[in-house]
Amino acid sequence: MRLKITHNTVYRYDAPVGFVVQSLRTTPSVFEGQKVIDWKVTIDGAEPGPGFRDGAGDWVQAWTIRGPVTEVPVRIEGEVETTDLAGVLRGHREMVHPMVYLQSTEATEADDALRALAAQPAPDLAPLDLAHALSALVADAIAYRPGVTHLNTTAAEALALGEGVCQDHAHALIALARERGLPARYVSGYLYADADGAPHEAAHAWAEIHVGGLGWVGFDAANRTCPDDRYVRTGSGLDARDAAPIRGVRASTGMGAEELDVTVAVEAVGP
Which of 87, 125, 126, 242 could form a disulfide with 238 if both were Cys (CB 3.0 to 4.6 A apart)? Predict the structure, then answer.
């Protein structure tokens, strides 16, 4: 499938900011399941800095904006050709050992409820079957409902609430997988989810679990599926904060407030 992505982010400050440095992890990953046809990042008034491919195989690009500015618009647009690999991240080159992804974070720390949920599948399940079972448990335990959680909601809090969004499903599944000894990580990207071809708000997140013999396999518990040709993968990390598409620092004379507006559209432009 050929997908067109338009991703606009605008940072607004209530006081002029003298200096902004941003680190973007927004370039589609390089693996057999997707091919970049065209990709462009534009930040008004910004100078591109060094870019590099990190140990996880993701492209990281630095940008510098010299102020004073009260607004920083970031526009990302391009086209990607995708292939359904049943969730398997085939041909993705990285140097970080999978065992690194057994470590928990504040967002993915397992509490008693998460540990009890992780213990439900039989202990003798094959790793791939176990991963599927854990994903189904998360989908059953956390109903998809926007607006009830926030950026800092933990997996334990989302499970207790029983509701959340894709970030919460991913964090919970990562917690369960790690509890059962399976390396797991958070993935950010895009999802085309409108069958009639109309643009769709589609920034998305899911989990990847490392399965012996297959490598990394994606699981989208929010949609009860593995990533297929509707998905575009851009970055990964231990949790949502680690895999954030845009991270940055700013220098200003005061502690003014920051507002963030984000719009994302994904549309199919070819088979």
Answer: 242
